[in-house]
């Protein structure tokens, strides 16, 4: 890695999960040679020593003037090591994409991450999947999102956070376009906060909620919010059990909503009579092609993958 021929490398990906051993000292020496990196990915490689964390931080600072994409994934970071790396990210002023996946942070490091969100004016995509559990302190990041004017995509897959804080931030945030909450379990009260946020939000285009196990009441609340929202284009509720009444609630909302182009549902339960009535509602409100159901029914002509024919 330290060879002169590699010194002008622009893209560096280090991926673990293999039995090959490596020397952290040699890795640090090798990384010190890179001065022109634009992307840096450190995936499934454990950062077991503070020396390695400092070496990575030095690389980030050295390349901070041209790094646009940085990814860390499942690195088994200690909190002191995470702190060193997060501080270095503050020097990456051109960064447009940051992933910090499967690396849990304490409150102090979350505050530093919030400062990263607040200070990096070019940051457009932030991925924090599997990084918050047991209602982790999301408040500082939510506060940063309130005034952020660059971030367009936020992914929080399988995170357990105080969702009310996130959804409150959506009342004032106008730049976020995509919110991915796949595998996030929410209470009915949190879903109501999301529905209220979508009523006011004027920037969001896509909300992904697969595997969220929303209750019927929560789905209907979201449907009612769509009657007032005029910017959202896609809402994904796949792999969530729902009733025909849930789908009908969306049919009624879509009657006056021409912006929402795609609503994906999970397995939909209902009697034959309810299905026939739903088919009528889909046709009456011109929802065929906009609502995708995951059942096979001769009347609805729905394929196995949920697409309609």
From TrEMBL:
Domain of life of the organism encoding this protein: Eukaryota
Transmembrane segments: none
Keywords assigned: GTPase activation, Leucine-rich repeat, Repeat
Keyword Repeat: yes
Gene Ontology CC: cytosol; nucleus; perinuclear region of cytoplasm
Database matches in SUPFAM superfamilies: RNI-like
Gene3D superfamilies registered for this protein in UniProt: Ribonuclease Inhibitor (3.80.10.10)
GO MF entry, a single one: small GTPase binding
Keyword Repeat: yes
Gene Ontology BP terms: nucleocytoplasmic transport
Protein name (database record): Uncharacterized protein
């Amino acid at each position: 890695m330290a060879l002169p021929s590699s010194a002008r490398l622009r893209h560096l990906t280090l991926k673990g999960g293999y039995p090959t051993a490596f020397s952290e000292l040699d890795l640090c020496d090798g990384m010190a040679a890179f001065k022109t990196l634009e992307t840096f990915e450190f995936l499934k490689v454990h950062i077991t020593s503070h020396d390695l964390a400092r070496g990575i931080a030095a690389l980030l600072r050295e390349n901070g003037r041209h790094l646009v994409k940085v990814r860390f994934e499942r690195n088994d970071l200690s909190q002191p090591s995470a702190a060193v790396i997060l501080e270095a990210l503050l020097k990456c002023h051109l960064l447009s994409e940051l992933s910090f996946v499967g690396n849990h942070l304490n409150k102090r490091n979350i505050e530093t991450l919030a400062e990263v969100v607040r200070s990096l004016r070019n940051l457009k995509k932030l991925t924090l999947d599997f990084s918050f559990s047991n209602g982790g302190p999301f408040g500082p990041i939510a506060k940063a999102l309130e005034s952020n004017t660059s971030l367009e995509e936020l992914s929080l897959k399988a995170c357990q956070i105080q969702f009310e804080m996130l959804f409150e931030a959506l009342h004032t945030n106008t730049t976020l376009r995509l919110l991915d909450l796949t595998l996030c379990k929410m209470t009915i009260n949190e879903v109501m906060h999301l529905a209220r946020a979508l009523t006011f939000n004027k920037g969001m285009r896509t909300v992904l909620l697969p595997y969220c196990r929303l209750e019927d009441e929560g789905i209907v609340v979201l449907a009612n919010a769509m009657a007032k929202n005029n910017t959202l284009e896609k809402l994904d509720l796949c792999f969530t059990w729902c009733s025909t009444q849930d789908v009908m609630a969306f049919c009624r909302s879509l009657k006056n909503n021409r912006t929402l182009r795609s609503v994906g549902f999970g397995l939909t339960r209902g009697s034959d009579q309810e299905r026939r009535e739903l088919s009528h509602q889909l046709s009456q409100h011109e929802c065929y092609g906009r609502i995708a159901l995951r059942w096979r029914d001769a009347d609805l002509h729905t394929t196995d993958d949920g697409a309609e024919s």
